[in-house]
Write a structure and sequence with these properties.
CATH class of the largest domain in chain A: Mainly Alpha
CATH superfamily of the largest domain in chain A: Winged helix-like DNA-binding domain superfamily/Winged helix DNA-binding domain
Helix content of chain A: 25-40%
Number of strands of chain A: 6
Order of helices and strands of chain A: HHEHHEEEEEH
CATH topology of the largest domain in chain A: Arc Repressor Mutant, subunit A
Largest sheet of chain A: 3 strands, antiparallel
Strand content of chain A: 15-25%
Oligomer: homodimer
Largest interface: A-B, 39 and 38 residues
Bound molecules: manganese (II) ion, zinc ion
Amino acid sequence: MEPLVVRLRDRGWRLTAQRRVIAEAMTGEHTHLAADEVFERARAALPEVSRATVYNTLNQLVAMGELLEISHADGRKRYDPNVAEHHHLVCVRCGDMLDVEADDPDLPDHQQHGFEVLGVEVTFWAYCPDCVRTGANA
Amino acid sequence: MEPLVVRLRDRGWRLTAQRRVIAEAMTGEHTHLAADEVFERARAALPEVSRATVYNTLNQLVAMGELLEISHADGRKRYDPNVAEHHHLVCVRCGDMLDVEADDPDLPDHQQHGFEVLGVEVTFWAYCPDCVRTGANA
DNA sequence: CTCCGGACATCGAATCGTTCTAAGTTAGGC
DNA sequence: GCCTAACTTAGAACGATTCGATGTCCGGAG
Ligand SMILES: [Mn+2]
Ligand SMILES: [Mn+2]
Ligand SMILES: [Zn+2]
Ligand SMILES: [Zn+2]
């Protein structure tokens, strides 16, 4: 797929300097940044960008379907530029999050309780290699 | 399994009036209350219970393994008295959450990235019957 | 080129869920 | 019945996010 910045231009989205650095902060594989991390990265490229603009822009990108919003156990939302169907492998200790492919489980009819199922989200909880090493327990 | 209140007594946990009404607020099938909802229920039974005690008690019960803490998309944590292995069916519109059984997906070896996998959490996103009816879109 | 209107960005205050702190209350072993 | 540790309390503090008021920028009409 085309880079985020290109897709946004093609949609006729006004690509200001602020929006550009925010979109650029989001590019890459296995990127699952919290808003504050996006703010830090954006500010490194354009110091006068404001926190409010980061939040506004992230919310707009989510509404446009260009980012996924993931609610993480630590209470901060993460923003994922990989909008393709995928699942996650998450370290329970440091929160590090990788994209993975796995077969979608399915929900037997008799478990559907009359709901209209739209999709499924799978999270594998784990210790990452660093956290296995440095703190086997704790 | 024995009721929560009974298990707590057997563990030698000091069962005060406040803790009792909080534990009782949590009983039932498909119960996934936010802290504030637990507070409302507890207060209905014992008006002078404080918000701090609700949070303290919920956190202790989670640490004891008597409740599961679930991070929900709306930013509020939910507390689940069903500590057996199970998954969830969640309405994307109203947030209603039901317990379901479904086969655990597994993560192919080549997708493990050296992580030590501990478990898997599956969430089926859906419209509940009420939300299908009252707001087909929106 | 200049002006205008709307879209955009900014700052700080406000809000929300949760945790912390300091002080008061209670339970139960002695 | 006392003493002490455990418990509860109200409210302050906190971190993440949203809101509101104000100021700036941009692109098209004239
Ligand atoms: Mn991802
Ligand atoms: Mn459940
Ligand atoms: Zn880790
Ligand atoms: Zn619903």
